[in-house]
Structure formats: C-alpha cells, structure tokens
Amino acid sequence: QVQLVESGGGLVQAGGSLRLSCAVSGRTFSMYAMGWFRQAPGKEREFVAGMSRSGTGTSFAESVKGRFTISRDSANKTVYLQMNSLKPEDTAVYFCAADFVVSAPSVLTRASQYNYWGQGTQVTVTS
After folding, report:
1. Are 20 and 7 in contact (CB under 8 A)?
2. For the residues of 55-124, what is the DSSP string, one character each?
3. Furthest C-alpha separation in the chain
4. Burial of 15 (0-12, 13-18, 19+ CB in 10 A)
5. Helix (H, G, I), strand (E, B) or coil at 9
6. Which of 83, 81, 115 is nearest to 97 (CA)?
C-alpha cells in the first residue's frame, strides 16, 4: 500500500514562490513514477508535472514550463514541486500522484495512469 501526503501549500502574492512536498510511504519508492496535478474550482483536474521513476525524465504542462520544476529525493522518499513566478491562475488544489512502472524513463501525464493520490494541498495566489 502506498500513501502520499502533500504539504507546502499556502497563500502567496503573484510573482512569489512555493515548494510543495509529497512524502511517499512504502518500500518501493524507486519503482514509482510521480506526478503533480491541480484542480481549480469548477474545473477538471489537470496535469502539472511528472517525473520518471529514474528521475531522468520530466514533463510539464505548457502553462507552467519555465516556472515550475519537479524533483525527487530517494533517500527521503519525497517528491517536490518548486513553483516560481506564481500567477493567480495557478490557484488550485494541488495533488501528488504515484504509480508503479516497469520502464524507468516513462513519464506519466494522464490522471488515469495513476493509482495512488494524496489528499491535496491548497495553493492560493493573490494579485
């Protein structure tokens, strides 16, 4: 069983930064591709960023490219989403996701590809 716990959300002014963390329980962290998604009120959940289990592959939504980065710390079984130059349109609940993958370079970008989800953390960006 894999459990994901996000933290790091909060209220920030436009142009500011936040770093979200996702702590992963379980013994096979190295076997999981990781992703971040977000959902704004009245909108569908959307992909934000993903990283392969090897850490060598990443993918980002066009709306966050150049502003967000994703990283993983195997020793601490944690995935991070560094968010810079935040905009009001980044306001949403952010979810961490994980799934077991065989292929080390695979990056999962669709919500349906993930079986494990965190509870979400709120990010609010004011103008």
Report:
1. yes
2. SS-EEE-TTTTTTEEEEEETTTTEEEEEE-S--GGG-EEEEEEEEE-SSTT----SGGG--EE---EEEE
3. 43
4. exposed
5. coil
6. 115
User: Which residue is associated with the tokens 């292929």?
Assistant: 103
**In the Cβ-directed half-sphere of 56, how many Cα atoms lie within 13 Å?**
5
How far is residue 94's CA from residue 122's CA, in Å, rounded to a whole number?
6
Report the distance separating Cα 123 and Cα 90, nearest Å: 8
User: What is the DSSP secondary structure assignment for residue 29, as one 8-state letter?
Assistant: G
47 Cβ neighbours under 8 A, 6+ residues apart:
35, 36, 37, 59, 61, 109, 110, 111
127 residues of the chain, pLDDT tens digit each: 899 999 999 999 999 999 999 999 987 899 999 999 999 999 999 999 999 999 999 999 999 999 999 999 999 999 999 999 999 999 999 999 999 998 888 999 999 999 999 999 999 999 9
How far is residue 7's CA from residue 45's CA, in Å, rounded to a whole number? Answer: 18
